[in-house]
Specification:
With about 240 residues, the protein is α/β, with parallel strands linked by helices. The chain has two domains: about 90 residues, 3-Layer(aba) Sandwich (Rossmann fold), CATH 3.40.50; about 130 residues, UDP-N-acetylmuramoyl-L-alanine:D-glutamate ligase (3-Layer(aba) Sandwich). About 25% of the residues lie in helices and about 20% in strands. The protein has a six-stranded parallel beta sheet, with helices on both faces. Strand 4, helix 2 and strand 5 form a beta-alpha-beta unit. It starts with 8 loop residues before the first strand and ends with a strand. The model has no long low-confidence stretch (mean pLDDT about 95).
Length: about 240
């Protein structure tokens, strides 16, 4: 499979997810790495064997000029003018979830989204699978960062991902099984409108194939509207389902 990133690679945001991205890049032999974060970066979190460029503070996005690919941490808004300019100039903006979908060997990925209840449903699905001795792993917004899942990747394991609107906003690949819970509105301090928030959620199903499956809460007007955007088989649950 073609590598999903081309060096030099920037890591935008260096919290838990950004640190996971760094370990992934090192594991695939990438040595030209740029880290960008508004906050100071602890040098003890950086490898000593290679020199990594860091950009922090008010002008942290100046590091984009050094990059061909940028891995955006989920909490960084992807429509920042600097990121749009980076892409217009030929740069590749990607994310942990996008790289995971491109690189994983897993044949079954269950993606779960909704305004509330995602973590509970992900845990419930994992419990059911484990009760019938089906290997599974939880990741994404809940559990293990997506790229860490590649360390123990297997075609026989079911992967259950909790996916927030932050992660879904730039996603152009959908999981084989999508679960859409009640969708209302949230994170409007981050999203520019409720429409943008709901449109991001729809990426969970937007790129599914006919052989895939979408399970949705029919009691939710917005979950139902999202389900109408898939090419996959749809199954509903809720009152009257």
């Amino acid at each position: 499979m073609m590598q999903s990133v081309v060096a030099p690679v920037g890591i935008l945001g260096f919290g838990v997810e950004g640190q996971s991205s760094l370990q992934y890049l090192l594991s695939i032999g990438i040595k030209e790495i740029v880290i960008m974060d508004k906050n100071p970066i602890d040098p003890q979190l950086l490898p000593k064997e290679i020199e990594i460029k860091t950009f922090t503070g008010e002008h942290y996005l100046d590091g984009l000029k050094e990059c061909v690919t940028v891995i955006r941490s989920a909490g960084v808004y992807p429509m920042l003018p600097e990121l749009l300019k980076f892409q217009m100039n030929g740069g590749l903006l990607t994310s942990q979830i996008e790289i995971y979908f491109q690189e994983t060997k897993a044949k079954k990925i269950i993606g779960v989204t909704g305004t509330l209840g995602k973590g509970s449903v992900v845990s419930m699905i994992a419990h059911i699978l484990k009760s019938v001795n089906k290997p599974c792993e939880i990741g994404g917004n809940f559990g293990i960062p997506a790229l860490d899942l590649l360390k123990t990747d297997s075609p026989d394991r079911v992967v259950i991902l909790e996916l927030s609107s932050f992660q879904l906003m730039t996603l152009s690949i959908s999981p084989s099984i999508a679960v859409v819970l009640r969708v209302t509105s949230e994170h409007l301090d981050w999203h520019h409108s409720v429409e943008e928030y709901r449109d991001a959620k729809a990426n969970l199903v937007r790129y599914q194939k006919k052989s895939d499956c979408c399970i949705y809460l029919q009691d939710s007007v917005h979950a139902t509207a999202i389900a109408k955007q898939t090419k996959a088989l749809t199954l509903s649950f809720g009152h009257g389902a």
